[in-house]
Each structure stands twice: as C-alpha cells, then as structure tokens.
Design brief:
The chain is an alpha/beta fold. The protein is built from 14 helices and eight strands.
Length: about 325
C-alpha cells in the first residue's frame, strides 16, 4: 500500500507538533512538541482545557500569598500554565517539549537565565528530567549568550525567531541544542518586499535559508539540530524532507497525512562534503554587523518578539479575567 507524505517524512525527519492543543498531539503522536505564547493562549481558551487553567490560577493564588496583587498572581500563573501544558504533552509524547521564556526578556541575558532555571525547577518538581525539556529563547545576541550559559549547566535550549545565517552560526558556536528557523515568516517578508503572490517551493526564500543553514552545520560538523518551523504550505515541508526536525501545525500534518505521493529526501548530510562554503566566526561585533545588513532578519526578529509579547499580554489579560471570575464564584459559594 502506498505511503502518505507524513509516513515518508517520518522516515528521514523527526516530526514535531507545533501546537498547544493536546488532542491534536494525541492524534498525530509526534516525537516532540513545541509551543509558544500564541499557541498556549489559543489552547487556554478552549473549553476542554479550562480545568487546567483554573487549577493553575488557584494554585498560583494560594502560593503567591494573601498580600499578592492580581498582577503577581497572573505572572506566576503564566509560567505555571506553560509548564502545566508541557506536563500534559509529555504524558503523550516520548520526546521533548519546548517551553518558552517570556519574550519581554529577549534582550536580558541574566533574566533569561534565571527564568529558564525556574522553568526547569518546576518540571523537576513534577518529576520531569531536564533532558525532556527544551527552553525556548529568542535568537537575539543576549538570548544566545543566555543559552550558552544554560547549555553548560545541562539545560538544553531551542533558539527561536531565527531568520539569518549569522544567528544560526552564533547558536552553533554557543553549543545550542536546537534552532528553529522560521520558514514561513521569511516567505512572508519576501512576498511583501517583492510584491509577488507566491514562489515555487524549491525557490521559496525560507526553504533556501534553512537549506543554507543545514548545509553549513553539516559541512563543519556542528551538533546543533536544525528544526524548520512556521510553514505556510506542504510544498515548503516537502522541499525540506531530511532536515533534522520539522515542527508542523495540525492543519498541515493533516494535509501531509491525506496526500499519497513520492517524497524524495532533499537535505542529506552525506551530500554536503563537496560544497564550497566559507566558515564564519561570530563575535558580537560581527553578529551586529551581519544583523544590521540583513534587513529581513532584523525586521522579522523585532516583529516576532513584539508578536510574542502581545500574545503574552493577551494571555495575562485572559488569566486576570478568569481569576476574577473564579474569585467571584468562590465568594458566592463560600
């Protein structure tokens, strides 16, 4: 019986579910899963997850103490909610879950390190080894330096919002476990910049970017894994078959599962030895220079941090409203 595209993809690439929806994860049984504030916000509004949200809020209120403000309780609850969803996901998948550091800390190395340690401590308290958690950090210079510190402590990191080769090289040199280059957001930028409606998948700027990073890593023997992310269509996924990992939304996973066709491997470490690639060493000055010269990477990184920050604020507002309702219900039933 012919295999569908998802079955064939799994033979050459680790498939990761890009969702906070536990039911979708149960359906597709990926090895790993990744979430972000936008995904958790969406999941937190689904009726089937209200118990998780309510329990997290009430526990945060209790632990914060009688004198804690609503803002303090909500801030505590946000981190715990991310971990609560992570714990639920880890009951389903055999591998790792990515849990994101507050995007508002993206340019603060010390605060990022502290927040990452706290998240890992929460997982440890719940009986989860740090080997099963990836701390997700924006690939700013400060974020990469934070990841370098954390990796030396055995805390593994997933560097996200990655758009340029300079970010990827800096991550590899810092010993980061995994990077998430954003394929679809790169395509979005080029479509807007050029006025084009579409690109053939093989010429998709996001696909080309990930291919360049993958080949660079394999050429120079870096252990950092490449996980393509933020896909707009299955054509991008097909062109990146063979990438170390790909994190894919439930909608595109369904499309891959429902499509029967041949899936040739496009990325292959055995084919990079003969490629002529210049090795670049990245320090902060070089990073800043390359980042400034790459307008797409500069704009999309800033935009991504801003987007995740707005999603955090939205989630905090939702939690505050839910907490107020719970407190009102408790007063009525007291």
């Amino acid at each position: 019986m012919p295999k569908n595209l998802l079955e064939q993809l799994r033979e050459v690439t680790v498939v990761v579910a890009d969702t906070g929806d536990i039911q979708a994860i149960e359906k597709f049984t990926p090895r790993d899963a990744t979430t972000n504030p936008s995904l958790i916000t969406a999941a937190a509004q689904m009726p089937e997850y209200q118990d998780i949200v309510d329990q997290t809020l009430l526990k945060a209120k209790k632990d914060a103490g009688a004198k804690a403000s609503q803002a303090d309780i909500v801030s505590l609850a946000f981190d715990r909610l991310a971990v609560s969803f992570g714990l639920k996901i880890l009951q389903i998948i055999p591998g790792r879950v990515s849990t994101e550091v507050d995007a508002r800390l993206s340019y603060d190395t010390e605060a990022t390190v502290a927040k990452a340690r706290d998240l890992i401590a929460q997982y440890k308290a719940a009986g989860i080894s740090k080997e099963r958690v990836l701390i997700k950090i924006a690939a700013t210079w400060e974020g990469i330096k934070a990841a370098e510190i954390l990796e030396k402590e055995g805390i593994h990191c997933n560097l996200t919002l990655l758009f340029g080769l300079h970010q990827a090289i800096a991550c590899a040199e810092a010993g980061v476990t995994l990077i998430s280059p954003f394929v679809g957001r790169i395509l979005d930028w080029y479509k807007k910049e050029t006025g084009r409606d579409s690109y053939p998948s093989a010429e998709d700027p996001g696909v080309l970017s990930v291919t360049t990073i993958y080949n660079y890593y394999k050429k120079f023997g870096y252990k950092t894994e490449v996980m393509g992310a933020s896909f707009r269509n299955i054509g991008e996924i097909i062109e990146l078959a063979g990438c170390d990992l790909l994190t894919i939304s439930p909608g595109l996973l369904t499309e891959l599962q429902n499509t029967v066709a041949e899936l040739p491997r496009k990325l292959d470490p055995s084919k990079v030895a003969g490629l002529s690639i210049e090795k670049i060493s990245i320090d902060k000055a070089t990073f800043d220079k390359m980042h400034a010269a790459d307008r797409m990477a500069s704009e999309k990184l800033a935009e991504g941090i801003d987007g995740f920050t707005k999603a955090l604020i939205t989630l905090e507002q939702l939690l505050a409203e839910r907490l107020a309702r719970l407190e009102g219900e408790n007063l009525v039933t007291a």
